[in-house]
Write a structure and sequence with these properties.
alpha+beta, 55% helix, Serine Threonine Protein Phosphatase 5, Tetratricopeptide repeat, 5-stranded antiparallel beta sheet, 10 helices
């Protein structure tokens, strides 16, 4: 049984070679291009037969993307192809496919999360940052994402961004507020604001006197100050 595409919609509409129409939701088989479709509704002439049925399509699985290259909404073909490429270990191809979605649909959460994972696995530090910024624009209360962006900014010596992200984490009542304030102190020290870093560390040690990392950093800042004193 052969099909030809009539339209692309949330319920896909195809026409059989005998003139009947079917609408279905399809699932791509994992591990390669699928050519079988799971039919959930079959319309023949004026009646609808409910049930499941398998039909064979004579199109390779990349054809929907070629037919609708700009579609980046729900169930976008490029996102399915990215999943398939990722599962067979072709991370660069997966990234190429998923960016076809994220560059057209910036608020697609799942697609952006996949792009972030792929770029992290590929070690693409430069490309990871704009993805993190998009995700934080969508969900500004995600402590883990703020932490990742702060780390990237610190490594790039972007102190302004690092401070902004560390302050955001403290304001979000993170699971470990002592460490969050310690990280803010480190960012302040790295930016050259030693006085503010010391105040932050003293506040940390007031709450947790035995916090060793805070003690060590405070001693380090004091030693640096002594050396710089004429």
């Amino acid at each position: 049984m052969r099909l030809r595409i009539l339209a692309l919609h949330r319920s896909q509409l195809f026409q059989l070679d005998d003139g009947a129409f079917i609408s279905f939701v399809f699932e791509i088989e994992r591990g390669g291009c699928a050519n079988s479709l799971n039919v959930v509704g079959l319309q023949v002439n004026s009646g609808i037969q409910r049930g499941h049925r398998t039909v064979v399509v004579d199109l390779p699985c990349s054809d929907p993307e070629a037919l609708f290259p700009d579609y980046a909404g729900a169930n976008a073909p490029a996102q399915y192809l990215a999943v398939l490429a990722m599962e067979r270990g072709d991370l660069k191809e997966a990234l190429a496919q998923i960016t076809r979605v994220t560059t057209r649909y910036e608020t697609a959460w799942d697609a952006n999360v996949m792009e972030l994972q792929l770029r992290e696995k590929l070690g693409d530090t430069l490309g990871t940052r704009p993805v993190l910024e998009r995700l934080l624009w969508i969900s500004p209360y995600d402590v883990e994402l703020h932490g990742k962006l702060a780390e990237l900014a610190t490594r790039a010596a972007d102190h302004k961004t690092a401070l902004r992200e560390r302050r955001a984490i403290v304001a979000l009542n993170p699971p470990d507020p002592i460490d969050a304030r310690y990280q803010l102190a480190r960012a302040l020290a790295a930016s050259g604001d030693v006085a503010s870093a010391r105040r932050e560390l003293l506040a940390v040690l007031e709450q947790a006197p035995s916090f060793e990392k805070g003690q060590a950093l405070l001693l380090e800042l004091r030693a640096a100050q002594v050396k710089s004193t004429p």
